């Protein structure tokens, strides 16, 4: 295969993988396509399918100008298959095969492991589209409505990216996996999505922004780890997906940031300086900061579960095999084999949380999770606390302890408060609503969810953005509703 294939944008499926020269693959994808469209119409955004939406579409893979903006009806979006350029002479960067040429084909001994990694990643992509499908009805502005749909079409494109790998490299099993990706349903009792957080509801826009901040950030970490893969097609696919993922992160951090901004501005205007005076703050029609904190506690703890158990032989095996590396593996200064290395892990010992050094190979999930926590924490500071600080209100949003509200791993067996103090069952039950959103909090947020649909109009509980998408003016008609 030549190093660079120009993007073929004329066919049914835009691609830079030479689809025209691979009739078997093209047939497989063309067979999958109608089922995919049925899935999109059935489980994608409810309503708005005939409206023109100002979306960006990936049309190339170079740093400059990889995307173009324009009005598109979502079912006509050009979902394509785009890989980052091949790096000449790339070698495997870690594990038992370190230094060998990167694989251009599936290494037979690791076939099952690789297929599983791709399937699990692939399953999260349509899942989030399903979770967000009802939000269009209550969008706080046309700008936000457009951002929701941008995330949705890109997550769907990520599904295409994983389906491409399955169909191109895994024969019949791959085609079956690709069909199953369209068969499972988020939250379905009989056939749920593979990972817990992707079966939760996304009932309102605060949940959507928290999801894109916390849960899409897990996606970013997983894609980074897979971008290091010795299986070159997976690495190239994930490298390109990361360019899209950055925008999802942006939507989450600015979305919550704009909510925080509206709250602080309304409090200042009304002369309220106690952020815990919730009835008075809510009377202003904005979301009180303690409720935002509780939502952050919920989404953060739920997302930590996606990293799996702290100690994992699966993670060790896929690292040894050269299939999934660490976050920024190629920038870490060590032997990339982890022979004899240790890593500190928080564990539960005799009813207390203690730090223990364990073999680093077994603790790779933990390491990725630590990198995630650091990334999320710096986002909270930069995007949310800075806004509160500038407003002069005495409040800080902080991430809860990793032992808080967990269902998977070391701390699933206990309850802890957000500071990490272990609580008995009775005390947890008594104080739970101080840590996590109560039914009352959720009902209040739900009461605010009324659509704002005039160009330039924003719901009172969220501030307008600093700049428009693609530098459009504040009253730009991001979605044509007529
Ligand atoms: Fe994605
Ligand atoms: Fe995403």
Account of the protein in words:
This protein has twelve helices and seven strands. It is mainly α and 482 residues long. Helix 1 packs parallel to helix 4 (171-183), helix 3 (142-169) runs antiparallel to helix 4 (171-183) and helix 3 runs antiparallel to helix 6 (232-270). The structure holds fe (ii) ion (2 copies). One fe (ii) ion binds at residues 125, 155, 158, 219.
What is the percent of helical residues? 40-55%
Number of helices: 12
- Termini separation comes to 47 Å
Principal-axis shape equals globular
**Strand element count:** 7
Mean pLDDT comes to 95
For the biggest β-sheet, the strand order reads 2-1-7
SSE pattern, N- to C-terminal? HEEHHHHHHHHEEHEEHHE
Largest sheet geometry: 3 strands, antiparallel
Our estimate of the beta-strand percent is: 5-15%
Q: Detail the poorly predicted runs.
A: none
Q: How many whole angstroms does the radius of gyration measure?
A: 23 Å
The hetero molecules present are:
fe (ii) ion
In terms of structural class, how would the helical and strand content be classed? mainly alpha
């Amino acid at each position: 295969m030549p190093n660079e294939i120009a993007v073929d944008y004329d066919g049914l499926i835009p691609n830079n993988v030479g689809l025209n020269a691979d009739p078997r693959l093209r047939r497989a994808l063309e067979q999958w396509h109608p089922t995919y469209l049925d899935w999109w119409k059935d489980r994608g955004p409810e309503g708005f399918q005939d409206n023109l939406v100002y979306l960006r579409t990936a049309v190339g893979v170079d740093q400059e100008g990889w995307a173009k903006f324009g009005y598109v009806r979502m079912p006509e979006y050009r979902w394509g298959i785009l890989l980052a350029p091949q790096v000449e002479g790339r070698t495997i960067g870690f594990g038992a095969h370190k230094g060998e040429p990167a694989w251009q084909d599936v290494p037979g001994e690791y076939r099952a492991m690789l297929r599983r990694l791709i399937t699990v990643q692939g399953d999260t992509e349509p899942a989030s589209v399903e979770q967000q499908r009802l939000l269009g009805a209550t969008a706080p502005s046309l700008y936000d409505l457009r951002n929701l749909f941008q995330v949705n079409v890109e997550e769907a494109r990520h599904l295409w990216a994983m389906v491409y790998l399955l169909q191109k490299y895994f024969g019949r099993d791959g085609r079956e996996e690709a069909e199953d990706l369209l068969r499972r349903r988020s939250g379905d009792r009989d056939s749920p999505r593979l990972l817990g957080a992707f079966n939760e509801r996304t009932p309102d826009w605060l949940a959507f922004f928290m999801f894109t901040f916390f849960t899409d950030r897990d996606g970013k970490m997983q894609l980074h780890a897979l971008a290091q893969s010795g299986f070159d097609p997976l690495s190239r696919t994930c490298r390109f997906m990361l360019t899209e993922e950055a925008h999802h992160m942006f939507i989450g951090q600015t979305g919550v940031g704009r909510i925080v901004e509206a709250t602080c501005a309304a409090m200042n205007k009304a002369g309220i300086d106690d952020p815990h005076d919730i009835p008075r703050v809510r009377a202003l029609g904005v979301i009180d900061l303690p409720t935002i904190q509780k939502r952050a506690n919920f989404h953060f703890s739920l997302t930590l579960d996606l990293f799996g158990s702290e100690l994992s032989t699966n993670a060790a095996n896929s690292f040894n095999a050269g299939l999934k590396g660490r976050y920024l593996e190629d920038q870490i200064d060590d032997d990339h084999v982890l022979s004899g290395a240790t890593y500190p892990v928080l564990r539960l010992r005799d009813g207390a949380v203690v730090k223990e050094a364990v073999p680093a190979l077994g603790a790779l999930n933990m390491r990725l999770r630590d990198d995630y926590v650091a990334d999320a924490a710096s986002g909270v500071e930069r995007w949310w606390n800075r806004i509160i600080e500038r407003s002069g209100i005495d409040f800080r949003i902080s991430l809860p302890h990793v032992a808080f509200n967990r269902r998977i791993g070391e701390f699933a067996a206990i309850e802890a408060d957000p500071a990490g103090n272990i609580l008995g069952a009775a005390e947890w039950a008594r104080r739970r609503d101080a840590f996590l959103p109560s039914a009352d909090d959720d009902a209040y947020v739900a009461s605010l969810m009324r659509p704002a649909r005039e160009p330039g109009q924003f719901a009172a509980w969220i501030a307008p953005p600093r700049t428009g998408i693609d530098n459009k003016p504040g009253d730009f008609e991001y979605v044509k509703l007529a």
